[in-house]
Structure formats: structure tokens, C-alpha cells
């Protein structure tokens, strides 16, 4: 009888005044959530290579176990089916040869030569004696466990069944483990009806016979096959782990290099690039994307540095340029105050006012140029939808230069592409004297006139009045888009790239038609290393000389901003001999493809039709 641990059942009276302590509600879901988040964090902390190798091990292990189990099951079922077939096919033969089996058996029916167990029962299911019992070595006897004498409960005639073994040791020697294990193997038994007839055909006697075969051989075969599958499976898993580790390490090696490259980039080295791999792979596509991104980041970073440096220099130069006229105004105003009570103050006052007026005019021009640049940087103050007669603008600028320098020789002509003869004489743009072509394009007429005026003004200020000038125009096709053209830096390398695009455009008749305007002087020129700097703001090769000539250092910067706003290109290059050539390129219209000539067959048919029409 069990004891009850409940105090109420033991006769203890409950205390109504006792208040049970409050039970705090447990939150198992919150605990499970914390445990799950901690587990996922630990899983995420495992390296990717370890995860992949672990997955390979798990998959190979599950696969080998599944295959081994399937093979064992299939072979076991096949062997059992073969045993059943053998029992059913050999049953009549064994029953008919029971007399010969009995002659090989001992007094108790045990046989050393027979592998079949045979037991005969009469019509009342009582045993008439064991006809044959196989005997193993060392006196070990194994018999199937059959229904009790006089009963066949649970047995269906003609249907084999499996039953356990009953082991007997008939000698005093201890049998070895292998013999006992074989003897303890289950039996496969089938119960079949039998009958004995007289010569007249009447049934003399009848009953059932149990015929059985030990499954020790089948079990031994299945166990041997299982051990073989286990060894092969272990070898497959080990080889798979080794090959998988090598493959995973080799596959993840590019990612390791990407990781090291990213670490160097994070340390500040933006010139690093990921090694190139085939783009049809995931890592190769990733490396291409990363290299493209890194190139843009480096370009943006350098552009930002350059912009910051230009801004600092611009602010410094603007402050310096504005300080000069302001200092002059302030100085002459102070000088006027000091000398206004002296004799001849009126003449000196006129001189001071003239200097003040000149300084204020210079400051006004400078401020207007600064405002113009600021508007252009913001994309304002320009309208490129107007129809501009570029030839008239350039001719007016040539007339202005002739009016400023009557002694200067000014030649007008066309721009042509002069092919090179060898590597030392590459293809270049050349001047061909003659009439300028009539060119009309869309743009801002006042801004383009400002560009040409600034170029002509520089020629007037910085070259001798007797040095000749060639002004040429032309329209040439180039296989480059205006957007790409406007992004090119203003240097001679970009000009060579443009000339190559012109060669392709002329040969293939593709791309965009561009108006090219060139101004070539034969003055002192500009050193090659400083030609790209003339488009920087406030840059002057000789600041004192520029100030004497009235230059602010913003003319070429304004010209570059206007040209780029028109999706064009401007650069400075050396002229033949001495001097400087400024090239302005502006888009006109897309190249119209040449019409294809009619096929010869169509022409022949048309000619026949014309002849028929004449007849």
C-alpha cells in the first residue's frame, strides 16, 4: 500500500487564515527566446568553412547510414524470400525422404548431415516424433520453438513464419561463442498438411508436418554485409571530409583574399583591388562588382580631395584678388584725406579717384566672374536650347581681335584630320586655309560668345601683337557620346583619345557629329605640365603680368564650365613650333547612316522594267 504525502489526507485540518504566498508567473517563452537567440549567436559565430565541412560530414554520414540500412533491409528481405521459396519447394521432397533422413539420425532424431528440422504431427496435432533435428558441433542442438503439443495456435498452414530457437547442449564440453551464437539464430518454419493413402485410394492417416531452416547463414550474411558497408561508409566519410575540406578551403580562398583586401582598404589604402576571377562564378562576379565599386570610391575620394583643395585655393585666391583692389581703394582714399589740404589737392584728388574707379571696376569684373562661375556650378544661368550660328560667333571674335591688334596676322580656315605616317607622327587635327564652314547647333549664344571672347582676350593679352593666329572650324564625326566627352579631363591625352574616336567615326560613319573650333597662336606658349592648369580658377602663369593686363584668372575656368554645360570638351595643346592651341569641341547632331546600295538583282530588274516601259 502506498503512502500519501498530502497532509490533508493524513488528517491535518486546513488553516483558513493562512494566505498562500503569491506565485510569480513564469515566462517560459521568454526563456526559450533567450536560449534560442544565444544558440543562434553561437551558430553565427562559427566560421563559414567550419559550417560547410560540418554539413559535408553530416550529409555523408546520413547518406552512408541510409544506404547501409537500405542495403541490409533489401538483402535481408531477399534472403528471407529465398528461404521461404526453398522451404516450400523442398517440402514435398523432404517429407518423402523422411525415411532416409531418419537413417542418418540418432535414436532421438538428431542428424549431423541434415540442415532441415522436420517434425510430424497427426490429425490431432500431437507429435508423432521428430523426424530430423540438425546438430551443430560440440553437441549443440538448436530447435525451433513450435506451438505446444496438440495445438497449432497462431500458425497458418502453408505460410512460413519466424520463431525463436531453443538450444540444448548434449555434451559436457563448453561450446565456443560462435557455435552458441549460430545456434541461437531464429528459425524459419512452414507448416504443411500431409496424408497417407491406401492402395484403394482411401486416406489411411493424415496430419501436419513442420519443416524449418535456421536463419543463421542469412543473419551472418547480413551482418557481414553491414560490417562491410560500415567500413566503406567510414572510408567514404573520411575521404569526403578530406576532399571537402580541401575544396572548401580552395573555394573560400578568394573570399579570404577579398577579406584581406577589404582590411587594407579599411586601413586607408584605396588603391587595393580584389584579384580578378572568371565572371561566370559567384566570387568572380562579386570581385568585379567590388573592383568597380572600389574604383568609383577611389575616384570619388580623389575628386573630393581635389575639390577640397581647389576650394581652399579658390577661397585663398579670391580673398587675395579681392584684397588687392580693396587695399588700393582704401589706400587712395587715405591718401586723398592726407593731401586734401595741401596745394594742388584737386589734381591729386582726380588721380586718386581715377585709381579708386579702376580698382572698383576690377573688383566688379572679378565679382561678376565669381557669380557667373557659381551659377554655372549650380547649373543656372545657361540655356542650351537656342539655335546658335557658331560661324558668326567665331568670325565676330576674329574681327574683335583684329580691331584690338591691327598688326596681327589672322588666318581663318577649316579643321581637318591629318593622318600620321608612323608612330612618331600620329594622326592629328590640322589647319587648312580657306573659308569657314557654316555650322549651326543648339546652345546658349551669349555663353558661347563669352567662351570665344575669353580665348581671344587671352591671345590679345599674353601674346605679342605681331604674332600670327590661325582660327579654324570644322565638323567631324566621333564614336563617343557627348556625356563621355564632357567627363574627360581637359588635357592632351583626352585630345588623343578624341582623335582616335574621330578616326573610328570617319571609317564607320557612326557616333555623333561634333563642331571643332581651334585657336592657334605663336606666342610664348605654356609649358606642357601647366597646360591643363590654365582651366583652374585664378591660375595665371605670371600673376603680376596678368594683373597688369587686367586678367582675373577666371576666363578659362568660365570657358570650361560653359563648354561642359554644352556636353562638350575643351583643352590646351602645343602649336607647331611655339605657341598654344585651344580646341573647343561641341556636339551638333548624330551621324546619319549611309543608305545601303540597292542589290544588283533589284537594279537588273529595274533596268528590265524601264526597257519594257520604253517599248
TrEMBL record:
Signal peptide: none
Pfam families xref list: HAMP, HATPase_c, HisKA
Transmembrane segments: 48-71, 225-248
EC nos: 2.7.13.3
Compositionally skewed regions (Basic residues) per UniProt: 606-615
Main location: membrane
Region named Disordered: 1-30, 590-615
Catalytic activity: ATP + protein L-histidine = ADP + protein N-phospho-L-histidine
Positions in coiled-coil regions: none
Ranges of compositional bias, category Basic and acidic residues: 593-605
Keywords annotated in UniProt: Kinase, Membrane, Phosphoprotein, Transferase, Transmembrane, Transmembrane helix, Two-component regulatory system
InterPro entries assigned to the protein according to its UniProt record, in alphabetical order: HAMP_dom, HATPase_C_sf, HATPase_dom, His_kinase_dom, HisK_dim/P_dom, HisK_dim/P_sf, Sig_transdc_His_kin-like_C, TCS_sensor_his_kinase
Name of the protein in its database record: histidine kinase
Organism of provenance: Bifidobacterium ruminantium
Amino acid at each position: 500500500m502506498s503512502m500519501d504525502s498530502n497532509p490533508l489526507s493524513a488528517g491535518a485540518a486546513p488553516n483558513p487564515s493562512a494566505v498562500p504566498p503569491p506565485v510569480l508567473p513564469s515566462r517560459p517563452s521568454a526563456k526559450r527566446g533567450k536560449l534560442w537567440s544565444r544558440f543562434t549567436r553561437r551558430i553565427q559565430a562559427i566560421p563559414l568553412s567550419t559550417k560547410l565541412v560540418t554539413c559535408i560530414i553530416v550529409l555523408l554520414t546520413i547518406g552512408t547510414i541510409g544506404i547501409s540500412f537500405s542495403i541490409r533491409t533489401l538483402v535481408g528481405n531477399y534472403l528471407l524470400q529465398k528461404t521461404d521459396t526453398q522451404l516450400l519447394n523442398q517440402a514435398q521432397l523432404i517429407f518423402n525422404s523422411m525415411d532416409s533422413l531418419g537413417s542418418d539420425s540418432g535414436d532421438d532424431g538428431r542428424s549431423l548431415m541434415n540442415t532441415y528440422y522436420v517434425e510430424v504431427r497427426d490429425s490431432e496435432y500431437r507429435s508423432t516424433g521428430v523426424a530430423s533435428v540438425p546438430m551443430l558441433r560440440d553437441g549443440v542442438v538448436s530447435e525451433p520453438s513450435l506451438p505446444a503439443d496438440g495445438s497449432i495456435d497462431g500458425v497458418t498452414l502453408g505460410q512460413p513464419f519466424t520463431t525463436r530457437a531453443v538450444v540444448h547442449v548434449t555434451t559436457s564440453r563448453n561450446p565456443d561463442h560462435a557455435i552458441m551464437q549460430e545456434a541461437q539464430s531464429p528459425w524459419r518454419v512452414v507448416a504443411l498438411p500431409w496424408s497417407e493413402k491406401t492402395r484403394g485410394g482411401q486416406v489411411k492417416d493424415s496430419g501436419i508436418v513442420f519443416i524449418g531452416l535456421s536463419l543463421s547463414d542469412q543473419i551472418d550474411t547480413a551482418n557481414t554485409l553491414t560490417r562491410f558497408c560500415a567500413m566503406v561508409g567510414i572510408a567514404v566519410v573520411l575521404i569526403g571530409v578530406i576532399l571537402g575540406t580541401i575544396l572548401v578551403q580552395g573555394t573560400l580562398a578568394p573570399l579570404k583574399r577579398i577579406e584581406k583586401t577589404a582590411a587594407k582598404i579599411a586601413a586607408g589604402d584605396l588603391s587595393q583591388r580584389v584579384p580578378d576571377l572568371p565572371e561566370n562564378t559567384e566570387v568572380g562576379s562579386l570581385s568585379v562588382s567590388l573592383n568597380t565599386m572600389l574604383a568609383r570610391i577611389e575616384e570619388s575620394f580623389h575628386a573630393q580631395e581635389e575639390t577640397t583643395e581647389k576650394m581652399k585655393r579658390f577661397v585663398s585666391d579670391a580673398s587675395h584678388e579681392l584684397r588687392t583692389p580693396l587695399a588700393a581703394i582704401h589706400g587712395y582714399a587715405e591718401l586723398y584725406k592726407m593731401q586734401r589740404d595741401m596745394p594742388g589737392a584737386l589734381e591729386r584728388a582726380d588721380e586718386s579717384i581715377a585709381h579708386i574707379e579702376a580698382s572698383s571696376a576690377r573688383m566688379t569684373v572679378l565679382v561678376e566672374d565669381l557669380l557667373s562661375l557659381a551659377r554655372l556650378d549650380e547649373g543656372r544661368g545657361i540655356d542650351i536650347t537656342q539655335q546658335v550660328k557658331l560661324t558668326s560667333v567665331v568670325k565676330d571674335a576674329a574681327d574683335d581681335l583684329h580691331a584690338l591688334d591691327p598688326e596681327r596676322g589672322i588666318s581663318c580656315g577649316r579643321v581637318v584630320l591629318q593622318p600620321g605616317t608612323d608612330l612618331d607622327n600620329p594622326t592629328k587635327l590640322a589647319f587648312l586655309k580657306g573659308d569657314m564652314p557654316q555650322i549651326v547647333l543648339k546652345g546658349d549664344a551669349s555663353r558661347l560668345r563669352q567662351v570665344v571672347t575669353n580665348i581671344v582676350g587671352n591671345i590679345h593679352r599674353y601674346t605679342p601683337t605681331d604674332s600670327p593666329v590661325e582660327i579654324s572650324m570644322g565638323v567631324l564625326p566621333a564614336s563617343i557620346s557627348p556625356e563621355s566627352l564632357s567627363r574627360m579631363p581637359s588635357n592632351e591625352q583626352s585630345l588623343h583619345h578624341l582623335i582616335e574616336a574621330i578616326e573610328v567615326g570617319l571609317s564607320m560613319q557612326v557616333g555623333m557629329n561634333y563642331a571643332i573650333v581651334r585657336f592657334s597662336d605663336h606666342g610664348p606658349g605654356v609649358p606642357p605640365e601647366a597646360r591643363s592648369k590654365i582651366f583652374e580658377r585664378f591660375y595665371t602663369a605670371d600673376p603680376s603680368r596678368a594683373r597688369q593686363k587686367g586678367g582675373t584668372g577666371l576666363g578659362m575656368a568660365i570657358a570650361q564650365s560653359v563648354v561642359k554645360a554644352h556636353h562638350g570638351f575643351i583643352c590646351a595643346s602645343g602649336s607647331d613650333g611655339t605657341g598654344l592651341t585651344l580646341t573647343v569641341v561641341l556636339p551638333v547632331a548624330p551621324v546619319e547612316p549611309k543608305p545601303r546600295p540597292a542589290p544588283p538583282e533589284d537594279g537588273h530588274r529595274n533596268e528590265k522594267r524601264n526597257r519594257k516601259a520604253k517599248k
